[in-house]
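Duplicate of earlier report; Plasmid mobilization relaxosome protein MobC input re-posted below.
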Amino acid sequence: MPRTRSRWSVKKRKDLLQIWKGTQRMKTATTGSEIKKKRVPGRPKKAISRSDLLMIRLTPTEKQLIGQRAKNAGLKPSEWFRRAAKSARVFPRFTPEESGWFRMLSGMANNLNQLTHLAHVEGLPTLALKCQALVRQIEELLTKLNSHDR
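Output:
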């Protein structure tokens, strides 16, 4: 038994054939006349072109981890990486204030070493007061650093 086609499927098939050939007939709503519309060849242009390249080095384990996470999210690894980079929060190792404290601590340690050297040369009683004051300053600075971390 031959299969019959509906009028809709025959019309749709003709429209598809015309699109495939490169033209499409469209009726305008106002006049009802037909217009030929040429098809633009090639792939459509992307809204955002990614022209810059950032190369990173990964260990095989890191690459596998990123690939698995991307797969679980239903994304390509590059897209997953872009999204992860946009939403990542990076904190500085130390604030400028903390860096200043470390520089002060380094200077104090240098002074203490110089005083220790002088104590060995001249004798301990003459420099005991200076060393005690310096040790108190170092303890205060270490207390600030410990309390600031918490």
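The radius of gyration is 38 Å.

Merging into the original ticket.
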